[in-house]
tRNA(Ile)-lysidine synthase (Ornithinibacillus xuwenensis), 464 residues
Amino acid sequence: MKEAVMDFIQKHNLLRPNATVLVAVSGGPDSMALLHFLMTIREEWKLKLIALSVDHQLRGEESKQDLEYVEQVCRQWNIRFIGASIDVPSYKKSEQLGTQIAARRLRYNFFEKQMHIEQADYLAFGHHGDDQTETMLMRLVRTADSSSFSGIPIKREFANGKIIRPFLCVTKQDLQRYCEKYGINPRIDPSNEATDYTRNYFRKKVLPLLKEKNSNIHTTIQYLSETLQADQNYMEAEAKKMAKNVVEFQGNPKSAQFDIEQFQSHASALQRRAFHLILNYLYDGLPENLSYIHEEHFFSLLANDKSNVQIDFPRHLKVEKAYNKLILYFQTDEHKMLEYHEVLSVPGKVILPDGAVVTATYSNEVKTQSNHTYICLASHVALPLHVRTRREGDRMSWNGLKGSKKVKDIFIDLKIPLQDRNSWPIVTDNKGEILWLVGLKKRDPIPSDQGTSYLQLYYDQGNV
């Protein structure tokens, strides 16, 4: 086994001499075999080994004893030990997460912290070839996304170093034999024997059937995983280039938008990957109920002939088509509380909820107007002014228009996205007549009267 693992390490450049290697050790056969294996090459490779072990507080005294076992073996093998006890039950309750997700998040937080503290080069895991096969089978059953079939990565960037998995080239049975050969008596988690967990079901029921047909299935699957990963890496790099050129990402709160025609001008394979890049940016951890159905809905929305359509994704993510734009944003309480009404004195100013400012002053001359300014005769306005959001039935008239027009129809004509309409600033006089649909329409033309007093409004978006 040692020869196979060393060939695997060298083939994939998993280690370098004089490196600091943190080893994730649970006390089970896989991680104990890994710790022992690395110990046998420690002197030759001049490695600094540190064992990391975590008690998740999920199995009471038993999991505490696992931690103590690893510490005891590390003393025997002259390996530095760092242990931690993390409160998974409390964390999963406070964050409303499943047990496995909560445990993994806290565990990796601990690992990341230790990587930085020790300035480590590698974090080694004991995943083996059977783990890889089980993972690929589970993903085959659960997902329709081809990028998910690249399996467990042999190595990847993590913290200030890399995660490595030197045992992906061997089987569970190989590691059990290794433990027997070197007198290692690992701790056994009883939950590994149950079949009510999905992975255990594949391990106990499905994998043995495959091995009857191909005893070397782990090697076949590992090669498949590596080739798929290479293809995925290339496509991912191209998709990132596409997203950088096409998608506008925004933070605080997170959102993304793009021109639909420009997005669709790229190959469908890149579009799909760009879609997943967007989701990975928006979500802090993809929701479990996010599936290929949402991907189908996303691309159906792009192809929809309607100008304004909206669909819902998990965790209140809104995907909205606004004419030639597609916008993805989270519907929060902040979005729901869009209505406002501020009284604007002259002179004076009001600050809107999004940080924009509307300023009112008197002037003796007509200055150059822009979309952000409004000037009219002071005598034509009933004070004070009001700055508010739209209301049902709002209508507006302006010079040259016969009668009036619904504000709703103005928004539609000017292709204003649905998400922006309810917070759009409208300036009215004290009688409720709309003077200015800010940035879009003005009631009054540029004044031509001379030697009189003018009212001037200025809209400043600031950092909006």
The two ends are 61 Å apart (CA to CA).
